[in-house]
Description:
Number of helices: 2
Low-confidence stretches: none
Radius of gyration: 22 Å
Order of helices and strands: HH
Distance between the termini: 65 Å
Shape: elongated
Mean pLDDT: 83
Helix content: 55-70%
Amino acid sequence: MSAVKAININNFLQIRTLGLDALKNALGVVGATRFLQQYDTGYGDYTKEKYTFAEEEAESVYEQLKTY
């Protein structure tokens, strides 16, 4: 059984290093790499765009329903 290591949660470099080590130990190098490749930071400003798209989609659905 491994000992739990005390970490400073305010030290982002330490958190990242320990997290990557945990992934590598659990999944191996290839598995950890494939896991990380699934995540993307994306683009745009979600907080500004989320209501715009929702409103446009609602109007589109409403117009489509009116035709039936």
